[in-house]
Design goal:
The chain has five helices and twelve strands. It is an alpha+beta fold. 24% of the residues are buried. β3 and β4 form a beta hairpin. Strands 1, 2, 3, 4, 5, 6, 7, 8, 9, 10, 11 and 12 form a twelve-stranded mixed beta sheet that branches.
Amino acid sequence: MQVILEGDVSILSISNIGNLEEFDFNIDDINEEADLNEIYEQIDSYYESSELDLATDNLKYKVINPEDINYLAIKDENEKEINLDDAILEHKSIDSISKFLDNANVGDLIYLRKEQGRASVEYSLEEIDRLTFEYFDCLGELEQSDLLAQSYYDIICDSIDLDNIKSNNEQAQIDRFDFEPDLIYGEFYKVLYDEENNQKRLEKIDVPGYYFLDSSVNSDELLN
């Protein structure tokens, strides 16, 4: 049996790229816009070739806001559209960013990449009784820190994790993920140590973010 989902999806990737030594750059010495663009383009080429995923500690989320689901259906011999109200929304913690920071060193550079666009996803399950979606509701967790408060939480919170859909405790397998981004944006953060709270935190680097693709009219409103 299959589950078909279509709608407006966001993909968030967070990669620890260390100190940029392998890119022959030092983030603290960047003064020219051309230098910054070259860094972004080099890192993007690593990302597109999947080398960044293989060479760095990273997180990746594929998520959708329930309101942005345009079509949801179960397909066996016939295809039947269903409502999200018929599914179970299961709370999912957002503590993965804290675990990610536990493995990072103070001073490491973090590359954050956001992609937004239309997607059509097809899953397979042996049997389907009632679908369960893991949902980042973030209640009671936001006070832990202000990590990537805009760039991270605004995308993840109140969204469904597209990598974790199940029925009767059986994990659905993604057979097809067709994604057409209309917005791709990158920015840098640095790992710092917060002595007051006795924990690591991320601080946005004071250099402009970079638009690899932007076909939206009000892209700044989407990302801020």
